[in-house]
Amino acid sequence: MTKVMEQKIGPQADSRLHIKYQGEGAGSTALAQMIKSGLRTPDVFISASPSADKMLMGASNHNLVNWYLALAQDQLVIAYNPKSPFAKQLEAAAKGTVPWYQVMEEPGFRFGRTDPLLDPKGESTIYMFELAQSYYHQPNLFKQILGSNENPKQVFPEESLLSQLTTGQVDAIVAYKHEAVEWGVPYITLPDAINLGNVNDKAAYAKATMTENGKVKHGAPILFTITIPTTSKDPKDAAAFVQYLVSGQGHDILMKDGFTSVPTKLGGNKADVPSGLQNLIQGTMN
Predict the structure, then answer these.
(1) Which pick of 125, 131, 152, 255 has the fewest CB atoms within 10 Å?
(2) Which Gene3D superfamilies does the record cross-reference, listed alphabetically (predicted)?
(3) Domains of the chain
(4) Mean pLDDT confidence for 93-111
């Protein structure tokens, strides 16, 4: 999302809304941790999962976030380098003539993903491979390709993962569809049953689990959210920017970038949503 924000949405927001846009991209969980520790005080926080917003909610988290809105939906894909030694096999997998996981199991195949403890995409990757094991009836698929949740040979910072792919350091990565679209790299579309991109498969996704610090977490549809932290120094401009992304031209840019539109449902306390944004709310999240 960093590329579309920096190259398209940011400059247009500057000219249309007369605000000074300055963004920073990283894993949503890592960003939430920085906000929580006071290292960052953004006016607007966009997350790749409601779980990052929830890290900042409640008295124990100084009520840094009281509400969040659904911004857009996405899905996981396997993005690959067209110059990879495995490009022909990956292209065949994209056409459905060979299983994608068989290509990734080939000796010498280099695979990249993000840290499941710092980035929702990395966490979703864990769920996706668990679901794939069952879907393809391949009980060893997770171990053969990922090795472990935090395999150091595969895990890269979220902000550098795509550059690892485009510079040829890895053959393929797990990416959001919008990332593959905005970077112009080929990708393999995954079935709805495993790509975490269909809200109708919510119950099935929840069967995939990951344990973190003794807590069992469950898979869920990928949902990007947006909020204004209570520490915002310019809440008026922040509200204008949120409206621009949720219902204005910024929203149209996101859809062209590969995202999928969703109803603007609310998480958290409606009373804390700025009055100018109340009309955007289209129900509440479960």
Answers:
(1) 152
(2) Periplasmic binding protein-like II
(3) 2-71+226-280 (3.40.190.10), 76-218 (3.40.190.10)
(4) 97
